[in-house]
TrEMBL record, chain A:
Record GO cellular component, one term: cytosol
Pfam families the record matches: PH
Chain's role: Plays a role in endocytic trafficking. Required for receptor recycling from endosomes, both to the trans-Golgi network and the plasma membrane.
Name of the molecule in the record: Sesquipedalian
Record's subcellular location: Early endosome; Recycling endosome; Golgi apparatus, trans-Golgi network; Cytoplasmic vesicle, Clathrin-coated vesicle
Listed Basic residues bias regions: 169-182
Keywords: Cytoplasmic vesicle, Endosome, Golgi apparatus, Phosphoprotein
Residue ranges of every copy of the PH domain listed in the record: 17-114
Family stated for the protein in its record: Belongs to the sesquipedalian family.
Automatic annotation (TrEMBL), chain B:
InterPro entries: Boi1/Boi2-like, PH-like_dom_sf, PH_domain
CDD domains: PH_PLEKHJ1
GO cellular component, one term: cytosol
Pfam family, one: PH
Protein name, UniProt field: Pleckstrin homology domain-containing family J member 1
Highest rank taxon of the organism: Eukaryota
Taxonomic source organism: Acipenser oxyrinchus oxyrinchus
GO BP term, example: endosome organization
Transmembrane segments: none
PH domain residues: 15-108
Length: 253, 149
């Protein structure tokens, strides 16, 4: 399949700030060694460069249909993985420089996919309609039966998003609805074996139709996963002698 | 540039509301119109040769301009190469308009801008930041300063 590399290079090297960037260790596909690479996250694309400041990326990872998991680390290497489930699909193993960065990357990568943004957008649209006093009911949210959020929980099925009736809206709000079926879910139905400390992979039942609930559920789920992960780390630290008493860096409230 | 091709192939197989057989012409001089199954999934425009399971290629729909050309065709051009256009011929003007609309909204950047719009409007109306309840107000991608072209 041909990918027009220029488009990616252009996108990667835009002048605007990226969503997140930093050094990570990346394990080679076949080799057991980790290489230090400069990573740059823009939207649902994770670019990596041989060296920071290189004009063009060495590669890109499209972050759709994948899960992000913390890994059992030996020698405190703050490892995590981007897992694509399915026959012949790859797992990218990465290591961060410290716990803060590890958590920060996992959080960023978990919410990098389109589905997450679509849910958020649905939610804001609904709130906007409420506060701007529009009384016309909106045709929003995933259609019944389409609200499945990927069995493994990472992939999103944003379902059939329909545009709200144009006549009901104030002049201010543009018609901003993506009108496509952006259903991306992990291809395999099997759950991978857990590798040490792993963010929970839960099974989703059909989410309620209302977009707000869908997003709130999603969001609290991410928060919960990160909480679980933090708990694990806390326990591990305690078991390991508890020398480090620094306060938790991410406050999820 | 390496990319996760197998994973992208999986994405290309996802169901899509926007998929149709269109006439497609590449941007280079001498490129001719060929029938392709064109399919929009997330921010990728995949194109398949008829009856092939795997796409011949994919266009990344970021920093691109989608315009209607003549009554029944639309073009996709990228920001720094605006003369180089990919042309798509539709069956009807209506179909063409639908594609232009869908592709314009397909980018991550478009979604981000929409989010920023609503965030700002809600804040104006209520004095509250709707992203705060999710704890994501400080994320770089939602900052006004990161307005991208």
């Amino acid at each position: 399949m041909k990918l027009h590399e220029k488009q990616f290079v252009r996108h990667a090297s835009g002048h605007s700030p990226v969503d997140k960037e930093g050094f990570l260790g990346k394990k080679g596909e076949a080799r057991p060694t980790y290489q230090r690479r400069w990573f740059s996250l823009r939207g649902n694309l994770l670019f990596y460069y041989e060296k920071r400041g290189d004009p063009g990326p060495l590669g890109v990872i499209v972050l759709e249909g994948c899960s992000v998991q913390l890994c059992e680390s030996s020698a405190g290497d703050f490892a995590f993985a981007i897992v694509f489930q399915g026959p012949g699909l790859r797992t990218y193993k990465l290591t961060a420089e410290d716990q803060h960065e590890q958590e920060s990357w996992v959080k960023a990568l978990l919410s990098a996919n389109f589905g997450y943004l679509q849910m958020l957008l649905l939610d804001l649209e609904r709130i906007y309609q409420e506060v701007s006093g529009s009384s016309k009911p909106l045709v929003l949210g995933p259609a019944p039966g389409h609200a499945l959020l990927g069995k493994e929980g990472r992939g999103y099925a944003a379902g059939q998003l329909q545009a709200p009736p144009p006549s009901g809206k104030s002049k201010k709000s543009p018609k901003l609805w993506p009108k496509r079926h952006a259903q991306v879910s992990p291809t395999s139905a099997e759950t991978p074996p857990t590798v040490g400390v792993v963010a929970g992979v839960e099974e989703w039942s059909v989410v309620d139709d209302t977009p707000l609930e869908a997003f709130v559920i999603l969001h609290s789920r991410y928060g919960r996963e990160i909480e679980e992960v933090r708990e694990e780390w806390r326990k591990k630290k305690e078991e390991g002698g508890g020398e480090n008493n620094e306060p938790l860096l991410i406050d999820l409230g | 540039m390496r990319f996760n091709e197998k994973e992208l192939l999986c994405i290309s197989k996802q169901p899509s509301e926007k998929a149709a057989e269109l006439g497609m012409r590449g941007p280079k001089k001498g490129d001719v119109v060929k029938r392709r199954l064109v399919k929009l999934v997330i921010n990728f425009l995949f194109y398949f040769r008829t009856d092939e399971e795997e796409p011949a290629g994919a266009l990344l729909l970021e920093q691109c301009k989608v315009e209607q050309e003549e009554p029944m065709a639309f073009s996709v051009a990228f920001l720094d190469e605006s003369e180089k256009k990919y042309l798509f011929e539709c069956e009807s003007s209506e179909q063409c308009q639908e594609w232009v609309e869908s592709l314009t909204r397909a980018s991550y950047e478009f979604m981000r801008r929409s989010l920023m719009f609503y965030r700002s409007e809600i804040h104006k109306l209520t004095g509250k930041d709707p992203l705060e309840q999710y704890g994501i107000s400080e994320e770089a991608r939602f900052q006004v300063s990161s307005q991208r072209p």
